[in-house]
Amino acid sequence: MSAIGLFFGTDTGKTRKIAKILHKRYGDETVLAKPLNVNRIEPQDMLAYDCLILGTSTLRGGRLPGIESSAQMEGWLEFLPKLEAANADFTGKTIALYGLGCQEKYPDTYCDAMGELYNFFSQRGARCIGAWPTDGYSFTASKAVGEDGKFVGLALDLDRENLKTDDRLNGWLALIAAEIGLPSHT
Q1: Which of 59-63, 125-129, 146-150 is predicted least confidently?
Q2: Does domain 5-180 have CATH number 3.40.50.360?
Q3: Which of 63, 67, 76, 83 is the most exposed place for a label (fewest CB within 10 A)?
Q4: 65: burial class by Cβ within 10 Å (0-12, 13-18, 19+)?
């Protein structure tokens, strides 16, 4: 089994925290590669994997993390143009997304950045998996909700619903395990 790439973009470190939890769960870099911040990689680092788990936070105004969106460091806003410049083709690659947001403070842009990643990678040929139900969430709008009425990946709210994180992660990992090549145990 080849490793699954695990990449994230963050502002406050919460998206990194989830990446580290995911990595620790599997504890074997032959299964799930060490998590890497997109501000520390080049396009070929991501393109080396056939299966990827990608995480993002959503910043003010529903934006991806990056300097332009007032993040503390570079993030997806700076990395996506690098992928474009490299004419990155994700055809044949499988991607599962997770996104962080705050339903209470930003109910009209909840996890919007995850929707932006979904659009970017699916337009470049990726097969995105891991759609997650919106049941149990309280928000008014989200670009991360697909045509089927589900989130395009796992939506997490560590600010207001931290106690639901483990159950949501377990359910999502069970959902994507077979398609992405993760062992079925969590």
Answers
A1: 59-63
A2: yes
A3: 67
A4: buried
